[in-house]
Amino acid sequence: MLALAALGLAGLQAPAVPLFSAAVAHAEPAAAAPSAEEKRRAGAAFDRGVSHFNRAEYEAAAQAFLEADHLAPSSQAITNAIAAARKASDHLLVARASQRAIARDDVAASAARAALADAATRLARLELTCDVKDCVIQIDGGPVSVRVDYVLPGDHRIQAQAAGASDAEQLHCVAGATYQVVLHPVPVKGAEHAPPPPPPVQPPPSRGLPRAVFFTGLGATALLGGLTIWSGVDAIQAKDALPAVPEQSQNDAVLARARRSNFLLGGALLAGAGTAIVGLAFTDWGGKPVTAVVVPGPRGAFVGVGASF
Question: What is the pTM of this model?
Answer without folding.
Answer: 0.52
